[in-house]
Amino acid sequence: MRCRKAERLIHLYGEGELADRNARALRHHVEACAPCSRLASSMEVLARLTGEIRSQEPVLRDPQRMTGEIMAAVAADARQRTSKRSRTLEIGLFARGFRLQPVVAAALALIVLVLGVQEVLLLRRLGRLEARMAELGSVAAVDRSTALQTGGLLDRELSRLANRGVRATGILSPRGADELIVLRRSELASLLASAVGPGADPATVGSLLTRRFPELGTITLADGITMDEARRLLAYRTEILHALRGI
Amino acid sequence: MHASAIEVEADAVELVARSREGDQGAFRELVERFQGYAFRLAFRLLADEDEARDVTQEAFIRVWRHLDRYEPRTRFSTWMYRIVTNLAYDRLRAGRRRKRVVDAVTLDAQESRAPDSAALHENAELAGRIGELVDELPPKQRVVFVLRDLHGLTVQEVAEMLNTAPGTVKANLSYARQKLRERLSAAGTQVTHKNDQVNGTDRPERTLREGAHDAMQEG
């Protein structure tokens, strides 16, 4: 066996990765060839390191919370699928012949993106929000019981956010909410489509933002959200929520 | 697949069938049974606890929504793993996103109040070790390397997971190991020394010669 082949095979040292014949030939070669023997030794260093890491198991902390959060999302999804009434509620925002102003859509989308949560998204005291949204030609309401149900989910999400160092309290306050407007991330696409036309994508939202808030600089969002964009958008979020609070 | 995974696999197909009928209790059982596996895989792939939790949740929600696509001939855990792997891979490809920054902000806040701060600390330490090792690999090599070397799947299982040929897996694996080996060699004895200190009681690891020996025994 030549060194070049040996080198290649040395990197496939593991179980079932080498054919017997190759393994045998490799062993002979490594025994006889000093450079390849050194190579094999350094491969063993890596193997030892990966073995150590493999033996250390990540711990799923608070599995009940994990199950609870998943099941809350599942229950919400099931409700959405089975109840026509709730479906109407959830898409009410877009289905009543309203069209969201693109910038509003972008703002909602961004709150979704920035907070990085799966389920929540926007809630305001409905009266206030309604006034504001009506002005922009769009509003949706959910009934109180749905609001309360969703409130539990929001509470959990908020504590999760708080755990992650995102200060959401005071901006989103489910306990104070009589009603809620909730957007799911999965609904984002239809939201955007209804706002800026079919085929709308995050890149479109990005350029809308860039135009509307030039002070933010260029935002693309085409391929997820970068840390730098996230930082700038956090500033933007404050601005948006401040505007809402001032109503 | 791991023996323990096979045990929990026993009536998964039945649970999936009931879940598909809308039985949330059955689905909860699936979640309870498999969330740990999903989380550990996501954690190793992403080297980040928060992201791993997110991906685990996202994966189960996806499973729930796509129960009708589950093919009972496939092990449930394989299907689940595949979804987790895809989600993690997408995140890796999209770039690291908010990760490190959030980590820096949240660790302080969490550390003081988390009841299981020991586990939190261990997770953070492990995430650091994994990240240090694989952060510089391109996403595909990283995923292959992690599945094979840090999660302990076989090449065949990795290929199945990624829906690709074993040869492709081996090629990526070989590149990844070569890159990491070269980096370790460059770091030299410090690395060995550090690891001995960190984990002195660790079980002995397969060496090249043992690996080759095993391969011979198999035949």
Explain what you see:
The complex is a heterodimer of chains A (247) and B (219). Chain A is an all-alpha fold. Chain A folds into two domains: 3-55; 63-245, no CATH class. Chain A has eleven helices and no strands. Chain A is elongated, with a radius of gyration of 27 Å. In chain A, 40% of the residues are buried. Mean pLDDT of chain A is 56; it is low at 83-106, 108-155, 164-198, 222-227 and 240-247. Chain B has 219 residues and is mainly α. Chain B has one domain: Rna Polymerase Sigma Factor, Chain: A. Chain B has twelve helices and no strands. The chains are: A mainly alpha (247), B mainly alpha (219). At the A-B interface, helix 2, helix 3, helix 4 and helix 11 of A face helix 3, helix 4, helix 6, helix 7 and helix 8 of B.
Strand and helix order of chain A: HHHHHHHHHHH
CATH domain fold name of chain B: Rna Polymerase Sigma Factor, Chain: A
Q: What is the percentage of strand-forming residues of chain B? A: under 5%
Can you tell me the CATH architecture of chain B? Orthogonal Bundle
The whole-angstrom Rg of chain A is 27 Å
H/E series of chain B: HHHHHHHHHHHH
Secondary structure: number of strands of chain B: 0
State the fourth-level CATH superfamily of chain B.
RNA polymerase sigma factor, region 2, helix turn helix motif
Summed over residues and divided by their number, the pLDDT of chain A gives a mean of: 56
**Percent in helix of chain A:** 55-70%
Q: What best-fitting shape of chain B do the alpha-carbon axes yield?
A: globular
| Oligomeric form | heterodimer
What is the terminal-to-terminal distance of chain A?
79 Å
**Helix segment tally of chain A:** 11
Domain count of chain A, please report it: 2
CATH class placement of chain B: Mainly Alpha
Euclidean distance between termini CA atoms of chain B: 21 Å
Largest sheet of chain B: none
